Amino acid sequence: MVNLLHTLNKLYSEHPNVKILVDQLSQHKNAKIHLKGLTGSTRSLFSARFLTKASNTILFVLDDKEDAVYFYNDLSNVLSKDRISFFPSSYKRLIRYEQIDSSNIILRSEVLDKINSTGEKVFIVSYPEALIEKVVLKQELKNNSINLGVREKVSIDFIEEFMEKFDFEKVDYVYEPGQYSIRGGIVDIFSFSNEQPFRIDFSGDEIDSIRSFNVENQLSVKHFERISILPNLQDPTLEAGKESFLKHLPANAIIWINNIAFTVDKFNSAFDSAFLSGKENETIDIKKILINGEEFREQLFSFPVIEFGQQFFFKPHLQIRFKTSPQPVFNKNFDLISKNLIENAQSGYTNYILSENENQFERLKAIFRDTNTTVQFNPVDSILHEGFIDHDLKFCCYTDHQLFDRYFKFKLGGDFSKKRHDHNQNPDRFKTGRLCCSYRPRNRTIWRTGENRNKRKDPGSH
Fold first, then answer.
1. Is 271 contained in some domain?
2. Which of its termini does the chain have fewer beta carbons within 10 Å around, N or C?
3. Helix H or strand E segment including 16
4. Measured between alpha carbons, how far is 186 from 220 in angstroms, rounded to an integer?
5. pTM above 0.85, yes or no
6. How many Å apart are CA 416 and CA 430, to the nearest integer?
7. Long-range CB contacts for residues 221-227, cutoff 8 Å, separation at least 24
8. What are phi and psi of 398, to 5 degrees?
9. 426 occurs within a structural domain
10. Domain end point (choices 321, 354, 388)
């Protein structure tokens, strides 16, 4: 069984076009480059190899959400999910319906936090309906967040004041963004900047440890030295100015985009639709929350731009050509599949078949045995969205879902609406495993502070 990451890194490690692209970007500050001939998942594979060489933040702009999710999935399979960020629209459907998606708010806030807090390069995948929405100004993002670090001194009272200021809900056990709980010296916060809540363990006024944890079993997932807590940046009551997402990108960020003209048209279509809807609601000023296609296009001039689709907009400093073709359509005709694989091998191509299910490889081998054909292929224990043939590197990469004519679906992010429903139906489920965590009562000084805080409240509220 062949590992996808190892295989593709080996195949693309010496690809001459990677070096050409890196060199060109280093020579021209705002280079405009065309990548021609990329088909299927070669777009994501070549991009992934470039990312291993890149020292810049990179934004990939695909034509729509579906394309973006598949592209994100491919990059995650090759580079690991932790290295790639997805920046979606805040809305479940079109903007004009104003149906906010809590999962998407988390992902958007997480990206903004990574760009502005860590100072590290970030690889982001997005699409027009997401980028049309303005985001909170850089400075106001800092003003509306709180940073916490291990061994720092901060009172639990101060954290609670921040939670109350930004309308976090105090609960017994957190299960969705915008909630917090305090149990002795343990503070749980479900920030809008992370897909999982944080557990902050105090010793007096000093933070002992910070870790994320699984909501359902309460087990720790990852330890952190430092975190940022963000409120819901989509909350209309949050008095903050807004600007284009591109304004948050570092000056040396690189933008990869599939089709600029198509993207601009989608911006304008969504903007006009929202504008007409906004006329019915005089409290909405569309220009304060959205940018149009022309604004987005003008902002692209300030960045290096790599166009890697079939249509091109900028006059290029350089065109880089690839010789690739999509995986052939076989319509589950295994005689055609075996014939094609044999012809590939005879022509000097190496055959790879990708699947996450080992049984699929055995099934294929059994089918080929039944047809009395000797077919050689290398099984790869991972998956990509679309198969392809790379004529430069002379290998074929076929996916099992295309061979067996199955729909390939990838689910993104957590479903917090489902968690809310589950909690309402069975609240005790979210308490499971809570005793697995250390529980330490706050020291006497902190208890006294807590008593003082309670005295300020109406006695009838207890």
1. yes
2. C
3. helix 16-27
4. 13
5. no
6. 13
7. 221/196, 224/150, 224/198, 225/149, 225/150, 226/147, 226/148, 226/149, 226/150, 227/147, 227/148, 227/149, 227/191, 227/194, 227/198
8. -105, 145
9. no
10. 321
Tokens of 248: 């948050």
Q: What distance in Å separates the CA atoms of residue 185 and residue 30, rounded to the nearest whole number?
A: 51
* CA–CA distance, 126 with 64 (Å, rounded to integer): 8
Q: What token pair was written down for 111?
A: 């990206």
| CB burial string 293-332: b at 16+ within 10 A, e below | bebbeebbeebbbbbbbeebbbebebebebebeebeebee
Domain count, the chain: 3
Q: pLDDT, tens digit, for every residue of 313-337?
A: 999 999 999 999 999 999 889 999 9
How many angstroms separate the CA atoms of 236 and 283, rounded? 11
Q: Is 221 a residue whose pLDDT tops 90?
A: yes
Total residues found in the chain within this entry = 462
Q: Is the domain of 334 the same as that of 311?
A: no
Within a domain: 31: yes
- Owning domain of residue 204: 145-232+432-461
- Which of 72, 59, 12 minimizes the C-alpha distance to 306? 59
Structure tokens at 204: 């007096």
Going through 177-225 in order, the beta strands assigned E by DSSP cover: 179-183, 186-190, 198-203, 206-213, 220-224
> Measured between alpha carbons, how far is 92 from 388 in angstroms, rounded to an integer?
32
Distances (CA, A) of 120 to 88, 110, 191, 257: 21, 14, 21, 22
